[in-house]
Specification:
Elements: H1 13-20, E1 28-31, H2 38-45, E2 49-54, H3 57-66, H4 72-88, H5 96-99, H6 102-111, H7 114-129, H8 136-147, E3 160-161, E4 169-170, H9 179-194, E5 204-207, E6 221-226, H10 236-244, H11 251-260, H12 274-282, H13 290-313, E7 314-325, E8 327-329, E9 332-334, H14 336-346, E10 350-358, H15 375-379, E11 382-390
Parallel strand pairs: 1-2, 1-6, 2-5, 6-7
Antiparallel strand pairs: 3-4, 7-11, 8-9, 10-11
Helix pairs in contact: 1-2, 3-8, 4-7, 4-9, 8-9, 10-11, 13-14
Length: 396
């Protein structure tokens, strides 16, 4: 299956599709942590109503574009106008969120060679500052077309390697990659992967927190399909910020998003409550350091808040399928799947099924190709598919 944009640790399409195929036309699916947009893309092609949330602006952009029908000819004409306008721009353009912030400007100068920086400034002007069209669907699609030339395995529009795996490191100091020259090919890839003609129902996507689903009414969702970030496993924003700095975000804004995300390493300032100490004993990770104990506590509270929101928005007898992997913190195996079940139980969600699948080392939805001895492999050995139900007897 072709994807419109690289994304680390995307959900396997078969998982989303197997669950979606059990639903009926007119029903509504929610993915509160939509990431790559796999669930929304599959639901949109089945004609189901679908809603996605994500705190990561690039994840939300990819998810929206991947589940929105567009006019391909209109997109090609817009791309031609965009390239023409950019190529006519001879002076270096100023972007307030970059040039007015020394930290962000330094970041740009480190990761981008002068040629690509100049081209990206022009693209940013005509996609963000002074858009070439009022059609938001076209603008979003063109941003994805540009972004996938930045978020890459090998250096293209930046000086970084492994950006697609959220592990960017600068491997070259000179770059002659012409972004304008490669944009038509990137557009062709996105349109082919999108298969817009097969989209029957556009998804709704929101930039928001899975722990506070403010736009969603109580008891309005038929099914949830989602994959929470694994604790301490993948730092999505580390790679995504190379793209997002061109779409209006400063580093300080991205840092705030990063620190507030589920699964981040930011710890709470207070000691875990006694309830969590009991959970730690049951799950056999009470020997981790004080620092990592607070990290685990924060992750558990995040899962608890999120599952409480899932229970709130689900209809009676609605189901929630979570795909979650386990982690490793300094030699201690952390069963995130068990933490999730403990949190869901507090939200009165009942486990109705659980299966485990080994993650193949060479599958593209893993962040990198790994060997069994690799540190990342030890944190992501397998993933659990846990389905919860909200029934009248346990409704919150």
């Amino acid at each position: 299956m072709r994807h419109i944009h690289p994304f680390p640790a995307r959900m396997a399409p078969s998982i989303a599709l197997d669950k979606i195929n059990t639903l009926k036309s007119g029903q509504t699916i929610l993915d509160p942590m939509c990431g790559s947009g796999m669930v929304l893309a599959q639901a949109s092609k089945q004609g189901l109503n679908s809603i996605g949330y994500d705190l990561d602006p690039l994840a939300r952009l990819i998810s929206r574009v991947g589940a929105t029908k567009v006019d391909e000819e209109k997109a090609r004409r817009a791309m031609s106008r965009l390239i023409e306008k950019c190529q006519k721009t001879k002076t270096e353009l100023k972007l307030d969120w970059i040039d007015g912030d020394p930290e962000t400007l330094k970041f740009v100068r480190f990761w981008f060679d002068p040629l690509q920086e100049k081209q990206l400034r022009s693209l940013s002007k005509f996609l963000v500052v002074n858009p070439i069209t009022t059609d938001a669907k076209i603008l979003n699609l063109l941003k994805v077309v540009v972004s996938r030339l930045i978020i890459t395995k090998e250096p293209k529009a930046s000086l970084a390697r492994d950006t697609a795996h959220s592990r960017p490191h600068r491997t070259i100091t000179d770059n002659q990659f012409d972004i304008f020259e490669h944009l038509p090919g990137s557009l062709n890839h996105v349109l082919k992967a999108l298969q817009a003609s097969s989209i029957k129902q556009n998804a709704k996507t929101y930039l928001g927190d899975a722990r506070k689903l403010k736009r969603i009414k109580d008891g309005s969702i038929d099914a949830i399909i989602t994959s929470p970030p694994y604790l301490n496993a993948i730092d999505y924003m580390r790679g995504h910020r190379l793209s997002l700095v061109w779409w209006g975000y400063s580093l300080s804004e991205l840092r705030l998003i990063r620190s507030s995300s589920i699964g981040s390493e930011r710890m709470r300032d207070f000691e875990p409550e006694e309830m969590f100490s009991g959970i730690a004993r049951r799950l056999e990770f009470c020997n981790v350091s004080k620092k990592h104990r607070r990290m685990l506590w924060r992750y558990f509270v995040d899962l608890q808040n999120q599952t409480s929101e899932s229970a709130r928005v689900l209809k009676d007898r609605g189901t929630a399928l979570y795909v979650i992997g386990n982690s490793n913190i300094h030699g201690t195996h952390i069963r995130n799947s068990e933490l999730l079940k403990e949190a869901a139980a507090l939200a009165n969600l009942e486990v109705i099924s659980e299966t485990t699948r080994e993650i193949p080392n060479n599958r593209r939805y893993l962040p990198v190709t790994v060997n069994a001895s690799n540190a990342l492999a030890s944190r992501m050995r397998s993933e659990h598919l846990i389905e919860f139900a909200r029934t009248r007897s346990n409704a919150v």
